[in-house]
Amino acid sequence: MSRSKKPQLVRRRRKIKQKSVTPMQLNSNVRRVKFSVSKDGQTELFISSHGLPDFLIKAHAAVESRRIKQAYNLLDDAAVETVRQLIKRDPSRIDVMFVLAKTLFEIARFTNDTDLYGKSEYWYKKILKQCPRDLVYNQLGNICKDTGRMSEALKYRKKAIELAPDNAQYIAILGTLTIWTGRTQEGIGLLREALKKLGSNARIHSALLTDIHYLPNLDPKTLFAEHEEWARIHAPLSKAKVSHNNTAEPDRRLKVGYVSADFRLHSVAYFFESLLDGHDRQAVEVYGYGNVDCPDKITDCLKGKFDCYRDIRGMDDAAVVRLIEQDRIDILVDLSGHTADNRLPVFACKPAPVQVSYLGYPDTTGIQAIDYRLTDYIVDPHESQKFYAEELVYLPDGFNCYKPPDFAPAVAPLPAAQNGFITFGSFNNSCKINPTVIGLWAQVLKSVDKSCFLLKFKGGGDKEVKNHYLQQFEQQGIAAERVEIRNVQKDPVEHFRMYGQMDIALDTYPYNGTTTTCEALWMGVPVISLVGRHHASRVGLSILSRVGLEFFAASTPAEYVAKSTALARKPEALAKIRASMRNRFAAGSLCDARKYAGHVESAYRKMWHKWCQSQSDHVPSEEAAICVE
Hints:
The chain has three domains: 136 residues, Serine Threonine Protein Phosphatase 5, Tetratricopeptide repeat (Alpha Horseshoe); 177 residues, 3-Layer(aba) Sandwich (Rossmann fold), CATH 3.40.50; 177 residues, 3-Layer(aba) Sandwich (Rossmann fold), CATH 3.40.50.2000. The chain has 24 helices and 18 strands.
């Protein structure tokens, strides 16, 4: 396959707006508490540092600089009691309450400490009695969302918008939350409304692009047009040529930089760590550029595996561009796409000679400055190229590599053997569950007597959210008693152990599972997947093919139901599959980190050779596609 040469790019030295002001800032030039509204309708809060307890100022500063343990120690029970006594003497000190509530909330975000969330909520509710402002309602919405109380979060979000109807950020936040509660079309409408109010906002526009993948009937052509529109507005192509000072030696050791917000407890990290472990450090020097909002133990683990790690959180795009240039990165790889906290505007400035999109996003970025996308022939067949701004580079053994966790328990016996009935299930996030796929699941349940369905997702413990999904099953003729919906567990061991309650996993559509599919297979649970026309709906087929189970991938909805039903009627076959699955998985390409990394490095080397060739006097008018053997 030949591909026309891309237009030459110039780095646009436009002034890139930094992130908006945080909802609360300490400022000695204001009297106690001051609210203001920015041009985009966002409420900002300034609090005087005068008169605040010293430990509270220090704790706030520690949180701002991500010294979470120090902040936690500063806000011990004695410190909080000091604040209580201060408020008791002067109940009007909402400045003290604001700082305490916000600091507790930030510590809770990092530690996922339910008790700290509760303490933060207590103080925000006390503030609300004296100061019923939109910012307070929004913050209570944050607490409820983080603790899985989605319906309460929706109510607080709506109240915030009622008080600040011009705040487009609130509308966007409500849109995303609405999607998480199973109302995708409504949530997409809110995101579009927020964009209309702002005129232009790269972050919210990226959120819209991510979330439209959950819509059941969106075709690849429409998706591509949406991504092209983002690039036209936020990353326009320029006519002049970008020059780089990298040494054009084809076979030297390469500097490869990975940019991500997900170097943390996140699905991307589960797959990226395999590549990081497998890289040949004689061939590549590996840099990490972490835009991680809440670093955790996974962050610390990954940091130690890079040759050099840069924390770019809080840095504006121009500063990140300069840093990458100073590091003289040869190949810069984006792991986020349009997902949260991405740094795509950095890539639009072309700080590295070769730029690649990979792993963390199921679509094109739309950005012409990104040269390639690593993928495989199953998720992105050759005919998909017309829907990508990047040149597709195919890895021979699949586009990803999974690292099973050491803590995963042993595979449990087949539940049906003890229960006397089949349990189908899905642990995919709620955004992927739509009326279309519920309709398919309902057909399966109707076809298999006494069978039941186990769902688990964040917010699954919320009564209103649970009822929303149960009603959809009931509309399809499935009694609520046959469907069990649970909330996610904090303990990852318990999360894996719950796969032991599932006989057959039914994949979501059109957005297939990736991490959940690998988890289910590792725990011995076969997965039935429906294949579509777009990357997001072909991941199931890619993964199943690599463990020799491609016959569990269906090409039509009717086949999806038929395959699920047929497998459920063969308990002996299910038991054999379950007993052999982990060994089959471990022996396949999905777990071969070194071989996988070798394929990726081969792709990088060929990309680099092409760039080196482009620096010579003779540049061919057409470039051959990169092929990795």
